Amino acid sequence: MRLNRLKKLPIVIVSLLLVFSLASFSIDAKQKKERVFAIVDPLIHPFFEPVGKGAEDVAKKYGAKILVKGPDRFDVQQQIEIVENLIAMKVDGIGIGSTDPKALTPVINKAMKAGIKVVCFDTDAPESQRLDYIGTDNVKAGQHMGEVLAKLLKGKGAVIASQGIPSQLNLRQRLDGVTEVLKKYPNIKMVDVQSGQGDPSKTLANIEDMVRAHPDFNALLGFDAAAGPAAVTAWKAKGLKQIVITFDDMAEILQGVRDGQITVTIVQQQYQWGKLIVQRLSEACDGKKIPQFEDTGTREVTIQNVDTYNK
Length: 311
What we know:
By secondary structure, the chain is of the alpha/beta class. The chain is built from ten helices and twelve strands. It has two domains: 129 residues, Rossmann fold, CATH 3.40.50; 130 residues, Response regulator (Rossmann fold). The strands form two sheets. A six-stranded parallel beta sheet has the order 2-1-3-4-5-11, sandwiched between helices. The protein has a six-stranded mixed beta sheet with strand order 7-6-8-9-10-12, with helices on both faces. Helix 3 packs parallel to helix 4. It is elongated and about 60 Å long.
């Protein structure tokens, strides 16, 4: 009888080792489960491509899969529906550029309540339960633009402006920043501000209309990514020489700087946003405390540094 028990002992040991090995494998599998993070752009546009690139470049480091989504045009409801679909998919985290903070706040809060970590980038939804904002401090960026404008105009002139999507908090903040600075320069007048709704054709049409309506203007301000390329087109077509100050560093804008249509462009850090989105969502999923507001700063690009600023 005792001999039979001894014979069975190796079988029992092997069985126990197998159970422990399977349990260990199960724990490791859970620990190494790939997380799914979604980046929801305000709209699909070349300006946001570096955000996705930055996220993809660090995804492996953080064990994440990246989804990039966004409306094909300015459409708040479509952006809400994208987030609703991501909640149904049970993604682990969302980085969103909110086209309308008031309209997006309920769905952001719904995602957070469902256990999905949410951070904002580019344009904030500060009244929501989002964990962090990653991007430009747009009031400061507007003040930066205003000081550049005042210096170039030597404190006097008439200004027209293309705002973009007026419901976007970041664009309103940029205009607020410029307006605040211009209080110090009473001889600089903002004579017209038009919204192109982020649409290139409408933005170009608005700029052309303002140029006709205010032939003695001295400068154009462009607050969104559509304004720069539109200004390049209008300045080339009409042979205009007035000052243009815009935002961002898409290829058309940088070429416009080289060719003299754009005087200064205020450049942001989209690639860095993408990297930080993945890092902060990963940290939040791990239960770590993350910052609530991260200003990645801006840089001036002119003809003097257009080919060296990003090196």
